Amino acid sequence: MRAMRVVTLGLIAALAISTSGCAWLQGIFSPRPLSELEMGQNLQEAGKYEEAIQSYKAYINGEGPLSSQAQHFIGECYEGLGQTEKALEAYEEVRDKYGGSPHALWAAAAIERLKKPEGSGTE
Length: 123
Hints:
CATH superfamily of one domain: Tetratricopeptide repeat domain
CATH class of one domain: Mainly Alpha
Helix content: over 70%
Oligomer: single chain
Distance between the termini: 28 Å
Shape: globular
Largest sheet: none
Order of helices and strands: HHHHHHH
């Protein structure tokens, strides 16, 4: 998984460099926000959830193009920390603020899962 992410980011960086004359692509492929998002993902994978949350928040504050994904990952981190209420808040923000993104659909599913009483689901 990590190798695929590195290859993908390498391709994105190459595209950003090759499209340096196209301003809107430069904004989408800005290296600074992507590095903060990747750092958050690496920290999350290592179980360092609080540090990952800070990295994701820095990415969102920089108005990265994948802010909806970063916000969703914040919800996952709070779940990893066992903080269900904060996870719900993070997912609700994805749903409300980024309603047109695929992450809003994932967040809605996470909200439903977290709000469902234990033992009421089908296995």
